Prior knowledge:
Layout: H1 8-30, E1 97-104, E2 112-114, E3 120-122, E4 130-136, E5 139-146, E6 154-158, E7 161-165, E8 170-173, E9 187-190, E10 204-206, E11 212-217, E12 232-237, E13 243-248, E14 256-258, E15 265-269, E16 281-287, E17 292-293, E18 299-300, E19 304-305, E20 323-327, E21 331-336, E22 350-354, E23 367-373, E24 379-386, E25 390-391, E26 394-395, E27 399-404, E28 410-414, E29 419-425
Parallel strand pairs: 13-17
Antiparallel strand pairs: 1-29, 2-3, 3-4, 4-5, 6-7, 7-8, 8-9, 10-11, 11-12, 12-13, 14-15, 15-16, 16-20, 18-19, 21-22, 22-23, 23-24, 25-26, 27-28, 28-29
Amino acid sequence: MKKKNPPVVARVITLATLVATIFGTNFALAQQGAAPAAPAAVAAPAAAPAAPAIPPTWAQGRTAEQANSGLTPHPPGLTAMAAADIPTASLKTPPGFKVELWASGMANARSMALSPAGVLYVGTRFPGNVYAVVDKDGKREVKVIAKGLHRPNGVVFKNGSLYVAELSKISRYDNIEADLDHPPAPVVVFDALPKDEAHGWKFMRLSPDGNYLYFQIGTPANITVQPVTHATIVRLNLTTKILETVAQGVRNSVGMDFHPVTKELWFTNNGRDWVNDELPNDTLNRITRKGMNFGYPFCHQGDLLDLDFGRGRSCDEFDKPVMKIGPHVAALGMRFYTGKQFPAEYKNNIFIAEHGSWNRTKKVGYDVVRVVLDAKGNAVKKEVFVSGWSNGEDFWGRPADVQVMPDGALLVSDDVAGAIFRVSHVQ
């Protein structure tokens, strides 16, 4: 058995003692007749320095001046507000529209998916629940169809089955609408995804041909050179179970949709934190070819080099966003408007749920915004569509996702109020 080396500290002490002994002996021989010198005392080894504290992932990238900042992520909504306490009347829309409370009692309600039968499925990030909202005679009943899951944010419905994306795996609930009160056991579809908590929850969409599940794998920190598996948009082939990277350099997308005409994938992307109040912007992006790279962590918003990781790089190396949405607005779920209820100028425009800022001294976001597209499909303008979740520095709710309904109304989920609102056109 190989003999272990002594600890480094012990070896240092032994060497120090040996040196002192040699020097003491020589000194005594040179001073014959003198009393032997007392051996020099050996100083106790200094205590090993404490390991530096590792900052939480959201705090990475702070400057020395920002280290004592009081800005921290908002606590998640873990309970649902009582319907009577939700201030729906404070929500404002453009003239000709109205907003009403559609369903409540769903703690942390986030991503939504609608089945052909009209059942709305709602994922969550923290409670681990998946909900089904059944509309009967104008009244909505909320059912909890799954509990104890790990970040089941992403939901997709296909051919009678509900697909749920957790942090590190995707599962399928077959023939789920046969009995929502007694859902079937899930079947694991794919479980080889990273387990990083930071930006690990998934937003998931089904491809127009029904063959692929598209979702993101976010960066494992605020700002870092990530593994090749992260900061990507990927797609899973539902037949072969092969996972492909579609785009890179995407810090964290929590909303995506396919253009109803071109079938190109558009997505929102959350910019890094701890630059300043005005930079960088969250962005709206479009994938026109496989293998695009949108710049993270080297370049942000298409034209802002990172102070550290951007050294020696150029933003011209990377693909540009379609539009800058705003700094720290936390752009999440998005959908193209494919309904017929809203005025004609809304056709194929984009609605985005802005979850609202935490990494900014003055809050922004907390709205549903509309991105106007011209006749050629180019994004030309962004405007607020629904507001009123915030009042100055206070907020009572946070929009998380949007969903176009068969009648053309727009649903908005709110993961703080634990509710879903319906926006309709009344003129």
